[in-house]
Amino acid sequence: MLKSLLQAIAWHRIALSLIFVPAIAVAQTTGGASQAIPNQARAAGSVIEPVARSEAERLLLSTYKLRAGDVISLRVFGEEDFTRDKTRLNDAGSISLPFLGEVPVLGKTVTEIQEIVTSGLKGKFLVNPRVTIWIEEYRPFFVNGMVERPGGYPFQPGLNIRKAVSLAGGFKERASLNKIFLIKEGDASQLPQKVDVNTIVGPGDSITVEESFF
User: Fold this and answer.
1) What is the CA radius of gyration of the chain?
2) With bands split at pLDDT 50, 70 and 90, how would you rate the model's confidence at 143?
3) Nearest Cα to 211, choosing from 175, 168, 166?
């Protein structure tokens, strides 16, 4: 009698494990899939759309005006013909889209371009176009003088002189931290301004580190 009771309890435990283990496995699989896209967000209709990766980038995008050298991508939800992946902007300053032709983008923010494309498509071609545009790569900044690898490097939000020089391999031994000069891209005079290592760097800016003679 006791033996039969123990066998019944054992079979009951096995049955419970068969019910709950698959459910746990599914939950773990679902959680892993959501963590595989840390810098993206799900939109309606399970479309994956990029989002700004940091507060610095969100602030920058609100005022950032596109220029030659920036790389952008464009999506219109449900309309693959409008896809434009990693388009590098040139001096012509426009992107070609079906129905709309050449859309000017230079000197405009991402939000302004989204509004232009949405307005052009709405009513005439699509009932409620959902346009997403994001920056894949910012135009470069430039580092010259007493650094290990002078040249141009893709801009990153939140960049300062110290970080910019690090991307260029760091300061050379005879670099002067008191003789660092910056030419801002939007400065009409293009005159170098003396700065320190904490000065913020923008896309298209040029940094020059001079040599120390002492």
Assistant:
1) 27
2) very high
3) 175
The answer, as to whether pTM is greater than 0.70, is no
Residue 73 β-bridge partners: 134
Q: Is the dihedral of CA 169, 171, 174, 180 positive or negative?
A: positive
Distances (CA, A) of 47 to 38, 39, 91, 92: 15, 14, 32, 31
Q: Which amino acid is at 45?
A: G
Question: Which pLDDT belongs to residue 90?
Answer: 84
Distances, alpha carbon 195 to alpha carbons 181, 184, 207, 210, in Å: 6, 11, 9, 12
Measure Cα distances from 151 to 59, 176, 209 in Å: 27, 18, 12
**Beta-carbon contacts of residue 151 (< 8 Å; ≥ 6 apart):** 142, 143, 168
Residue ranges with strand state E in the chain: 40-42, 48-50, 71-76, 84-88, 94-97, 101-104, 131-137, 140-145, 151-154, 175-183, 193-195, 206-211
